[in-house]
Amino acid sequence: MKEIKLKIEGMHCTGCSSRLEKVLNNIDGVESATVSFEEKQARITYNESQTDIEQIKQAIQDAGFKGE
What values do phi and psi take at 40, rounded to 5? Predict the structure, then answer.
């Protein structure tokens, strides 16, 4: 398992962070994801054999946000 923190841009409320957290937790290979609106970041633990950082960033972008 690998853990990463990504800065998230484009969140305007706690509803945004909740929606993005759901999106991230539905990615195959993501063990857990928590998104903090206050900190403007996501903490993601994932299995590197099932997904990678690029797939995670693409899911963030598809949800309408930017992850770095």
Answer: 55, 45
Q: Mind listing the pLDDT tens digit for each residue in 13-58?
A: 999 999 999 999 999 999 999 999 999 999 999 999 999 999 999 9
- CA nearest neighbour of 19 among 40, 39, 3, 35: 35
Residue 47: per-residue pLDDT: 97
- CA torsion angle 31 49 64 39 (round to 10): 50
User: Each residue of 35-52: b (16+ CB within 10 Å) or e?
Assistant: bebeeebbebebeeeebe
Amino acid at 28: D
Task: Name the strand (E) or helix (H) holding 16.
Answer: helix 14-25
